[in-house]
Amino acid sequence: MSRRTVSHEDGAIYEFTPDLEGIATVEPGTELTIETRDSLDGAVQAETDVLESVPEEVNAATGPIEIDGADPGDVLRVEIAEIRIAEPQGRVITTDGFGLLDGHDGIEAPRTRLTPVDGDAGTIAFGDLEVPIEPVIGTIGVAPDSESYTTLVPHDHGGNLDTTDMTAGNVAYFPVFREGAMLAMGDCKAAMADGEMCGTGSEIATEIDVTVDVIETPELALQRPLVETPDAWKTIASAETLEAACELANGDAIDLLAAEHGFDRTEAYMVSSLVGGLEISQVVDPLVTVRNAVPKAYLSSPF
Hints:
globular, about 40% strand, 22 strands, Jelly Rolls, about 300 residues, mainly beta
């Protein structure tokens, strides 16, 4: 099967809504290359370019892509094969009113630092520091059930998850709320740490190779995004506080453990306290995002 390309030039969204219309329709099993632009839409090309505030439209997500036959209650499977850097530099910024330490002494906003790409070395530069290029998809999701969310906001549909596990070699799963799923993605980073503390990673344009598929009427209904790494299954949840997000991610993890092992909910809760692992994805968006990792030694597959 030949690989199909869908570009941000074909269409991109700044809001995930229940009534999204696809710019392309593909069959389950289709291999795609998704071309994305940087999350700031090219507005920052020099260190003298600064953002006084978060733009109304940010994190352009290429799409939406309709997956033929995806129905509410199904699960959309997105296998991430490769993420390629598509421009010679990224950018890290601070913006007034945004970021974990916004307003703290010594933290200047707005400010920009460019991160030139060294393709041969596989690094970006921040001053004298060389940081390995480990590309991440910041915003990825599907049409939500009833509410609308800008591409700055994470929720049960996905969206601005800013999760380092959304990277090559892993598989992302999303609940399908609307016919066709309506997948969109963008806001990629050449490198980003868990937490995304200043509010950005190294924001950069990319080309993403994925394969999309549909899991029809799974035995266990998926409520929120899930990511599969070579070693673990990680539930992902977003909420107004870290505690609330942790509760959701832990609840989803114990549902998976209970279904596989026949535990009641309390037993699965106990096991999660032995083998699970809470991880922070990001703490800077309108909602914060966490994940709960369960090693595959204890959870073979939810599907």
